[in-house]
Amino acid sequence: MDQPIGPERFYREMSPQLAARLRQMWSARGHDLDRLWADCIHALPGFRPLPPAPPANDSRAHDGLCLFDQALIWLMALNRAAGCGAGLSGLRLDAGQWQALEVLSARMTETVSALRLLVLSGLTPPALQLARSISEDVDMLLALLLRRKLAQQFLACRTADEANDFWRRHIAGGRAFRVVAEKLYSIGLDHSDHSEYGRWRREVLTLLGSAVHSSPLGRGALTGSAEWPANPVARDCLEFVTHRLHEMCAWAHLLDIGLDGDLARIATAGAADPVRARLLAFAAQSRDILLDQMRWTLAGPVVFSGAPALH
């Protein structure tokens, strides 16, 4: 059997410290990093080797892409688990919530994969637009996990008008995030609009929103900059999405919704397909891996710190 390509060969300038940490965290939990990376990242639509580039001054760009891909693997695993969870009885999350999670995580997987392709193709402005959409979907997914009736209403949408009405009533304008923030506040985490986190969040979403609305302002600065990995905006775009997926993982496990136990039960249900089985096992046992990577990213620079509007 051919040996799968390893991450170290793909992320050529990844720091040795991160490479060693990945191997340590994955092997300690019995996961095959090379195999799952090949199942998920190497199999992405449009996958290709990274373009040749002069040696960088540091490893931030390749480290950031590696951690982005790690979060994408987790999202794919969560989607597979959700598909299985909808058909199992005795879970704390009900069938409707698992169905909603499957639908939304599938959309998110496609969007995150598309953003990755755009960034690596030098198309930063549309990638920023997708980053805002992904951030909203993170809030929406967490809200659906917290409120069963909301998940039922989401699944009940049958027309574009119904879907738009659901979005306006429950998601738009930060409504979904406020549902999550209220729950976080109840366990001692202040992510309200008036907190430091809330101010940073507003600044980033305003920045990403400026990429959605057409305007000549700032256009020359953006198009005149280098492509990834040299483009700092492209790097920040990847890192912001990584951070939001890390938050989704951390908060979904932190909030008392029974996700840990449900994922463990789903993994033990088994799967005939080996790829599916690997993903189900990873979904059930990847929390500490993602949280460790979240700590790694939080130790770095703040994304989009002081950046101008991008039009």
Give the topology.
Blueprint: H1 7-10, H2 16-28, H3 33-40, H4 60-85, H5 95-120, H6 124-146, H7 148-156, H8 160-170, H9 175-186, H10 196-212, H11 219-223, H12 232-254, H13 259-268, H14 274-285, H15 287-298
Helix pairs in contact: 4-5, 4-12, 4-14, 5-6, 5-7, 5-12, 6-7, 6-9, 6-10, 6-12, 12-15, 13-14
Describe this structure in words.
The chain is 68% helix and 0% strand. The longest helix has 26 residues, at 60-85. It has one domain (7-298). The chain has 311 residues and is mainly α. The chain has helices at residues 7-10, 16-28, 33-40, 60-85, 95-120, 124-146, 148-156, 160-170, 175-186, 196-212, 219-223, 232-254, 259-268, 274-285, 287-298. It is built from 15 helices and no strands. Helix 6 packs across helix 10 (196-212) and helix 13 (259-268) runs antiparallel to helix 14 (274-285). 40% of the residues are buried.
Write a compact overview of the structure shown.
The chain has helices spanning 7-10, 16-28, 33-40, 60-85, 95-120, 124-146, 148-156, 160-170, 175-186, 196-212, 219-223, 232-254, 259-268, 274-285, 287-298. It is mostly helical.
